[in-house]
Amino acid sequence: MARMTMIAVCLTMSLSACTTFEQRQRANGDFDYVDSKLNETFKVPSDVDTPVVKYDYAIPEIGKEAPKDLVGKKITVISPALVLPLVTGSHVEEGLKEATVWFDQVNDSEPLDTTIWNSLISFLEDRDIGIVSFDKEKQTLITDWMIIEEDKDNGWFTWTSTERSVGRRFEFTLNMKPHGRTAELRTELRDYLETVGDDVIADINSEQVRRNEVDILNQVISHYEKQVRYEDVKRIRQIRSGFPMEMGFNSDGIAAFVVSGDYDLVWPRLLLVLRKLGFNVKDLDKSNGLLFVNYGGEETSWWDSMFSKSEDVLKLEKTDYRIKVKKQGPKTLITLMDEENTPFDAKTIKDIFPVFSQNMSSENLDI
Asked: What pLDDT score does 49 carry?
């Protein structure tokens, strides 16, 4: 009995393994409904009252644009293709037939369209996919053929193999909003060619077209998201590793700190340093490089005070101050002022420089 059961299981597995990739996506079973015809409505004699007919469960009429040939085995039974907006600031619009995704400006270091195109080109290069044409002004890119080849055994119990090759070419179009901080990336399948054994398929229906477009767009989005995560990790590492700092002067000839680091990296590092040194940030404006702070002194325990050095303590009055941060090429200038916007004199800058410099350049700043 056990032997017969095992044979039945193996036979079932063998038969199921013989199904092709396309067959597993199609409906199967009884399709007698395809040959069904609409019954005529019953006729009521003229001398009899016509009964009330309710249409609560009536099947609606098929729309003019609906594909009327998708019946029986032509119906796919797999889940619909959905665009996955994985990138921070990305989103999709419900109800769109086109494979599109929207990106919002998150990183101000470069224009949004440049970021998107660089990510897309990087995606294609990683997969050795050529580019037929790229027009930055028209915001369009057409890829070369993307070839997917499958030649794998279906299973040890079938001793057969399925050879399948799919070639696809896509066009990517970027539409920018007038303000330049939001962009729509759209994917369109331009050419499709599939071979399964000796069979060649060049025409596919609209549903399959969308599935191919969404598939490649999701791969592009996933690559974009990985790049964003990588840049975030790299950015955090740079911030934590610190930046060299020296004394200098700003464009007005006022004594200032000169940090060897990019503005967008020095800004968050400065916030950490200020907190470490006992400053409380009351308000800030990164776009204008302004910080409104209050100095309350470094918080230390009695145990820490036994080992702390006098040169590690800022000799500043515990009051309000203002800090101006400005980009100067690859470096960043930090100008300290009192609450009346009067800059610190050169002697005060020199006195507090060692403490600021040590915390600005130290690795893995402990907060």
From this structure: 84
- Per DSSP, the residues of 238-264 read HHHH---EEEEE-TTS-EEEEESS-HH
Question: Mean pLDDT throughout 19-42?
Answer: 70
Residues 139 and 274 in one domain: no
**Residues 273 and 338 reside in one and the same domain:** yes
How many Cβ atoms sit within 10 Å of the Cβ of residue 288? 9
- Classify the phi-psi angles of 142: left when phi > 0, otherwise alpha if psi is within -120 to 50, otherwise beta: beta
CA atoms within 13 A on the CB side of 250: 21
Tell me if 53 is assigned to some domain.
Answer: no
Is 132 in the same domain as 264?
Answer: no
Whether 236 and 357 map to the same domain: the answer is: no
Cβ-contact 92, 55 below 8 angstroms? no
pLDDT band at residue 10 using 50, 70 and 90 as cut-offs: low
The tens digit of pLDDT for each residue in 264-303 reads: 999 999 999 999 999 999 999 998 999 999 998 765 544 4
- Predicted pLDDT of residue 4: 54
Q: Quick check: helix, strand or coil at residue 13?
A: helix
Cβ atoms of 272 and 258 closer than 8 Å: no
The reply to whether 81 and 91 lie within a common domain is: yes
Q: What is the pTM of this model?
A: 0.68
Residues 230 and 249 in one domain: no
Query: Is 309 inside a domain boundary?
Result: yes
Distance CA 310, CA 98 (A): 66
Residue numbers of the domain that contains 353: 242-361
pLDDT tens digits along 91-112 = 999 878 899 999 999 877 789 9
Using an 8 Å Cβ cutoff, are 329 and 261 in contact?
no
* Residues 83 and 202 reside in one and the same domain: yes
